[in-house]
């Protein structure tokens, strides 16, 4: 199917969720395909790897919000701060501090999401569910990053019912953070849901969905 027809189908679903942002996952996609998607209305893209982004982003139209959504090593934090508008995958206090330091040096405030290991999966990165509240209370003191929301990537092999329960748990954690007023009004995003499960994520309160295959294949 074409990118155009794919986006028409996704847009039909998103009409029920008008405040939800679609981030097109552009890993291994050509600059031509990405620019075509932008011409069709895509306003945000997500890249997983710094090296690929360095090669690709100079070829991409400027009128798009650039999210980093992959595993970020601390030694690549400076490049991520320079290349991207949002970092969705802040998975440790060490990385949060490093991004803050690089932003301070560059005179920038970086919107970030805190990644939660909602499945307690040893193969995935992220803050544990029982530590995320305490970590938020520490990270809020970092003045050059702005925590705008939470993000998660559940286990691929989960049943859809299990995935739903994990999405629901992330939204519950988000609500607790809101209720405790740890961050300001800018903390309003829940990034969850990919091509196989984004409809469930929307039902459970996602405000950002990250779709690759659904857009480009």
Largest sheet: 8 strands, parallel
Cα separation of the termini: 6 Å
- Overall shape: it is globular
Q: What name is given to the CATH topology?
A: TIM Barrel
Rg (C-alpha, Å): 17 Å
Strands of the widest sheet, in order across it, are 7-6-5-4-3-2-1-8
**Taking all residues together, what is the mean pLDDT?**
96
Total domains, how many? 1
- Proportion of helical residues: 40-55%
- Reported CATH architecture: Alpha-Beta Barrel
The CATH homologous superfamily is named Alanine racemase
> Which CATH top level class fits?
Alpha Beta
Instruction: Give me the secondary-structure category.
Output: alpha/beta
Instruction: Point out poorly predicted stretches.
Output: none
Strand content: 15-25%
């Amino acid at each position: 199917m074409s990118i155009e027809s794919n986006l028409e189908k996704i847009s039909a679903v998103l009409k029920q969720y008008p405040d939800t942002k679609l981030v097109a996952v552009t890993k291994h996609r050509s600059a031509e395909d990405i620019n075509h998607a932008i011409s069709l209305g895509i306003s945000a893209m997500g890249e997983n790897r710094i090296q690929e982004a360095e090669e690709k982003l100079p070829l991409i139209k400027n009128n798009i919000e650039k999210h980093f959504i992959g595993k970020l090593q601390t030694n690549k934090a400076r490049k991520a701060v320079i290349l991207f508008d949002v970092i969705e995958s802040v998975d440790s206090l060490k990385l949060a501090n490093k991004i803050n330091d690089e932003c301070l040096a560059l005179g920038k405030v970086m919107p970030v999401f805190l990644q939660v290991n909602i499945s307690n999966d040893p193969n995935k990165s992220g803050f544990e569910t029982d530590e995320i509240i305490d970590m938020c209370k520490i990270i809020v003191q970092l003045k050059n990053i702005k925590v705008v929301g939470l993000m998660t990537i559940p286990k691929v092999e989960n049943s859809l019912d299990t995935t739903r329960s994990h999405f629901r748990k992330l939204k519950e954690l988000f609500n607790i953070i809101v209720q405790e007023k740890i961050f300001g009004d800018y903390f309003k995003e829940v990034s969850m849901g990919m091509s196989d499960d984004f409809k469930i994520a929307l039902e459970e309160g996602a405000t950002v969905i990250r779709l690759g295959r659904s857009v480009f294949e």
